[in-house]
Specification:
Helices cover 36% and strands 22% of the residues. By secondary structure, the protein is of the alpha+beta class. The protein has 2 domains: 3-209 and 323-412, Zn peptidases (Aminopeptidase, 3-Layer(aba) Sandwich), CATH 3.40.630; 213-320, Alpha-Beta Plaits. The strands form 3 sheets. Strands 1, 2, 3, 4, 5, 6, 14, 15 and 16 form a 9-stranded mixed beta sheet that branches. Strands 7, 9, 10, 12 and 13 form a 5-stranded antiparallel beta sheet that branches. A two-stranded antiparallel sheet has the order 8-11. Helix 3 links the parallel strand 3 and strand 4 (114-120). 46% of the residues are buried. It binds zinc ion.
Length: 413
């Protein structure tokens, strides 16, 4: 069996490690998490790595350089999932790292750096509501107040650590020394339709969009749907509708993405004029300044609409993350490798968050996106092909050799 086939077969095997009776769910610090880690650890060892769990529950494998003092390149992604997930989001990138090492090991290739493959334990943040916990831990950015986060059953993160045999007081020890890191590479399914639309197996990620999220509240006056004339109403839902329309227009005009994904109206009766409406707003761009300018425009629209209609409003920010740029040198290495495989190079932004965001605070990062069917992810219909997987493995392998070459040129000059 070739490597791409084996990789996808292993995705099938991991899909059976789930906390749900039907469908995939692997949440942080659960028996499934530990079982998946043990399976992956076995594959790492079979590929010629030594393997260990860190204090945050991430699984690692190392293909060591002959030079013990050499720096480290990390390749990986995450092994946790959302509920009713697909088989490839995250997992693909971890298993690709293992296949890469297996190939190096079989051909007895010595690298001038340690190659570490990591399976991050909690990228999705499903169980405790805070994402990227595994990668934040190794970046040395664990926040002690996370220890008290609780899951749906009231179990604290610190209790979940203890139940799984980990000590949350030791989680800071998972942090890596950034001066030893060459960088972080991640292969991930695109989770969007762009590569499929361009008929390309892979694409080079230029950066990860920074998201800001808000809760917007419009307050008007509830009233009887039959007795209050139209011109005397303070309908909060109609005002919200107008604002949502403006959000779409502003996003299109400024070439960013903005989404209202949740809305609720009170009192919520079919014969009652809505007196209060709450809706969410998620705004993303790879350009933080542009994103922030559009947010100011949205706030201005909210103010104008509510003033004209005699309503009150409130805007609360609930989340903010800065955009992350991928390393130009790594992007060029990936681009050259893609061209060598006979494909056009397409560069694209990641609208979704990834572990690379957390790693960017300690080392240079790069991501390669692989086409997935219809761009579907976080769903059982997530689908990839053996052929695209094979191309991704070849691109990563060529990129790895190009990195070795560029480091030796650097060393000679
Ligand atoms: Zn993912």
């Amino acid at each position: 069996m070739d490597q791409a086939e084996r990789l996808l077969q292993r995705c099938d095997e991991l899909a059976r490690v789930s906390g749900l009776e039907s469908g995939i769910l692997r949440a942080y610090m659960t028996p499934e998490h530990l079982r998946a880690n043990r399976i992956v650890s076995g594959w790492m060892q079979a590929a010629g790595m030594h393997s260990w769990f860190d204090q945050a529950g991430n699984i690692w494998g190392r293909y060591p350089s002959a030079d013990a003092k050499a720096k480290t390149l990390i390749i990986g992604s995450h092994l946790d999932t959302v509920p009713n997930a697909g088989k490839y989001d995250g997992i693909l990138g971890v298993l690709a790292g293992i296949e890469l090492v297996d190939d190096l090991n079989k051909n007895q290739v010595q690298l001038p750096f340690h190659l570490d493959v990591v399976g991050f334990a909690d990228e999705e943040g499903y169980r405790f509501g805070a994402a990227l916990l595994g990668s934040h831990a190794i970046a040395g950015n664990w926040k002690p107040d996370w220890n008290q986060l609780t899951d749906r059953n009231g179990i604290t993160l610190s209790a979940a650590f203890a139940e799984s045999g980990f000590d949350i007081e030791a989680v800071a020890d998972a942090a890596l020394d950034s001066s030893n890191l060459l960088g972080y590479w991640e292969l991930h399914i695109e989770q969007g339709p762009v590569l499929e639309d361009l008929n390309l197996p892979v694409g080079v990620v230029t950066g990860i969009a920074g998201a800001r999220r808000f809760e917007l509240i419009v307050t008007g006056q509830a009233g009887h749907a039959g007795t209050v004339p139209m011109d005397l109403r303070q309908d909060a839902l109609v005002a919200a509708a107008e604002v949502i329309q403006a959000i779409e227009t502003l996003a299109v005009e400024n070439k960013i993405v903005a989404t209202v994904g949740r809305i609720s109206a009170k009192p919520g009766g079919v014969n009652v004029i809505p007196g209060e409406v709450r809706f969410s707003l998620d705004v993303r761009s790879e350009n933080d300044q542009l994103r922030d300018r559009v947010i100011v425009m949205i706030e201005d629209q909210m103010k104008a609409v509510c003033e004209r209609r005699g309503l009150r409003y409130q805007i609360e920010e609930t989340h903010a993350a800065a955009a992350v740029r991928c390393d130009e040198g790594f992007m060029n290495i990936f681009s050259t490798a893609i061209k060598a495989c006979g494909y056009d190079v397409h560069r694209l932004v990641s609208g979704a968050g990834h572990d690379a965001m957390a790693l960017a605070s300690v080392c240079k990062v790069a991501m390669l996106f692989m086409r997935c069917k219809k761009g579907i992810s976080h769903h059982p219909d997530e689908s990839v092909t053996v052929a695209d997987t094979a191309v991704s493995l070849t691109v990563l392998k060529q990129a790895l050799f190009a990195l070795v070459e560029s480091l030796s040129i650097e060393a000679r000059s």
